[in-house]
Amino acid sequence: MAIDKYEIVIGCEIHTQLLTKTKAFCACENRYGGMPDTRVCPVCLGLPGAMPRVSKGYVELGAVAGQALNCNIARFTKFDRKHYFYPDLAKGYQITQYDIPLCTDGHVDLPFKHYPKDEQPGGEKCRSTNFKGEDCIVETDGSKYRRVRIERIHLEEDVGKSLHIEGKHSYIDYNRCGTPLIEIVTKPDMTSPEEAALFMQTVQEILRYVKVTKGNLEEGNMRCDANINLNVWEDGKLYHTPISEIKNLNSFRSIKDACAYEAKRQLDEFINDRQEFNPGFKVTMGWDEVNGKTVVQRTKNSFVDYRFVVEPDIKPFSVSEELIKTAFDKVGELPEQKRNRYKKEFGLSDFDVETLTSYRELALWFEEASSKSKAPKRVANLILSELLAKLNEEKKSITDMALSPAHIAELADALEEKKITSKQGKEVFAEMLVSNKMPSEIIKEKGMEVVSDAGAIEKIVDEVIAANPKAVADYKSGKTNVVGWLMGQVMKASQGKANPSQATKLVQEKLSSL
């Protein structure tokens, strides 16, 4: 027997905490960190007789996420109980959604340009037969994308957090109990560890953009469970390896590394000790980042273990058209759409649009500035070269700046109309940061405005040429670099106010005519 080829098959379950003010089913504050066990109540601790309530904001944020990820939003839904034992699951069950989730049948399109050329999907790697008459490569606005389908997004609550002190004790902090989550479940459409990492990165960007989550992986705002197995062709026959679920991956690197290791482990296991694939059976794995390998945690039968029942304390409910419309309005234009528009409207590079759309506040700030300016491309350049450099230096975001979009718009127009030189533009920008004055005010106070009057510039050029006969003689003898030196004298004589392009042209014309 010989292996002809194999293919990696990955589906993701992404758990994302929502930015509600309170927890999912009670009035406890929804906030990360703080003193353990200080933001709890009978409801989130699951004490007998405590009755959960569903907040409208919780459902609305779930619907916003669904709209942003191209899902259908259910008009009727319900909550269920999922039973399992875990030390930090206070109630012994989790309130979640089972057979009628809030969101279904969505998709995320991964930009083709982010794939290395030798790993760009297509052909056999694409597995387009999994799609209901729809190819996995889609094209929008002339750009190619790899489509990953989302099976469902359901609402559920988070569990507590176990704290382990090596060699001493384990503790449980219940502050996280009841934190509102969405779980995003994909189809098994990803074919490489890099693609799985890119998918989570894209989802994080989208959900941050629509203000559904902080998306901070280090704080556990987003976590990924990766389900992975292999399709293996041996002597022309197709085999499937058992599915492994790698739990609680909390960085893009760990998703990529864990899936890569597990794919190799499964291939070795297939060669040396193959096991039959069972669709209801999974091996739950953990990722040992220190040693760079997956480790078995437990085995489970996916559906039997959980004993799902309808949540008896929360009635099934309807989702109004008004709530769905509100969620849709909150989504707005997503980052990839903005990037395509910026390239078309403003002629910006891929790098420029990636930077300007890196977070929503910056993109909106740029749009407001460009709408107030006659030179939006110069606005973009000022933000990218001057403003962001200052923000990075001071470790601030655009919302911390005292400058308004109108400041940058006015400075861009002054540069575009050649009222000031690029060197003076830097001086004006520095002064704006200190005084918060508008560029026109600074230019006037400092007497910076460029002289573009042809007669005035010609007079200065004539005076400079007359005062430097040796330079003229050098030019006549073939030393053309003297033009630059004379230009420096013209700028010095005009105190830097002469229009550089006009002055250069006049110097060249005068020298040529001698």
Describe the structure.
- By secondary structure, the chain is an alpha+beta fold.
- The strands form four sheets. Strands 1, 2, 6, 7, 8, 11, 12, 13, 14, 15 and 16 form an eleven-stranded mixed β-sheet that branches. Strands 5-4-17 form a three-stranded antiparallel β-sheet, with no helix packed on it. A two-stranded antiparallel sheet has the order 3-18.
- The chain is elongated and about 95 Å long.
- About 1% of the residues have low confidence.
Quick take:
The protein is α+β, with helices and mostly antiparallel strands and 514 residues long.
Q: Quick one: how many beta strands?
A: 18
Taking the sheet with the most strands, its summary is: 11 strands, mixed
Helix content: 25-40%
CA radius of gyration is: 31 Å
Return the structural class: alpha+beta
Shape: elongated
Mean pLDDT: 88
Q: How many DSSP H or I helices?
A: 15
Low-pLDDT runs: 128-133
Q: How widely separated are the two ends?
A: 90 Å
The domain tally reads 3
